[in-house]
Amino acid sequence: MTLRLLVKSLLGPTSKIGVALASLAVGAAVVSALTSLYLDISIKMSEELRAFGANFMVAPLAGEAEAGAPPTVRGMATERLEAAIASVPADRLVGASPYLYGLVRLDLGNAVMVGVDFPGLRRLSPYWQVEGSWIGVAFDDRNAMIGRRLAESMALKVGDGVTLLNRAEGQQTRVTIKGIIDAGDQEDDQIFVALPLAQRLLGLAGRADFAMLSVVAQGPEADALAATMTREFPDVSARPIRKISQSDGQILGKIDGLMALVAATILVITTLCVNATLTAMVARRTPEIGLQKALGADNRAIVAQVLAETTLICLVGVVLGLVIGYGLAQVLGQAVFNAWVTFRPVVIPLTLGVSLVAALIAAVLPVRGAVRVAPARVLRGE
Hints:
alpha+beta, ten-stranded mixed sheet, two-stranded antiparallel sheet, 13 helices
């Protein structure tokens, strides 16, 4: 009997059922899409923010002399830095490079030379504008890259040769300018060569001053990574670059808050739409409800019937909303992050729970109206 009444009520005027169904489907679609984005956004946004440069630094611990190293030798062994870099999970490490600084003489004056790992430097600094091309391998000792201002002051262009001289060590070599860098910072006044070449010219074989890393982590994750690295390598100081990591966290926090606000607003609108629809449905069925009560149906049965109808409409709406929401998440993922959003099973129960709560809240007033139907007044035709 109850099932027959339920089916009959749902087969009533399709426009009202359709409005409630559409409202719940839209609400579920927005919730599932934003939840999928929220669960993926930290990783996606961190990956996007990594295009703005390094956010992590590994350096020798200040005041601690490295075991076996002469006290006059600065920096630390590159093997040690590479071991510290290798401790970062591969799926978190975007790029890394050791740095070795020194002053050398070029043809027309002195300049700061920086020894780097070029493949790692390119992943650290994808925002650099390069005239010419990047150096593709870490061991290239015949080419160099030079900052724009330094190139202009030395009258150098791509393809020119330049001599690097370190009088203190009696070392010199000639390299070809392969790329001119526009970094918009101090790098525009420096010349970059492969780390092994810089070590030979400076007489610091196997040494580096520090290493810069680009890591997909922000806020507490970056701090935890630094603490773990420091425990594993007591002779190094590992620390996130606060200004960048905190900016990452602030941006992600604002985006999370914006998504939560949008989802809450959509849920409120959905609840109001469903409430209006259910109220109209209950009003239309007042004679039917009154007759049921006259035949012996108690308030509990009437409440159960209305809630069952609401739940069934909600379940159908959630199924439609999950399908639409998955497509919406992909559209937003491609539009904002240029990446597909990974489906996460936890989105299903979360969307269902939120939608059910919204639907049941919307049903409170209609249920109250159904309970207040007086059989005697209905039978009198009032």
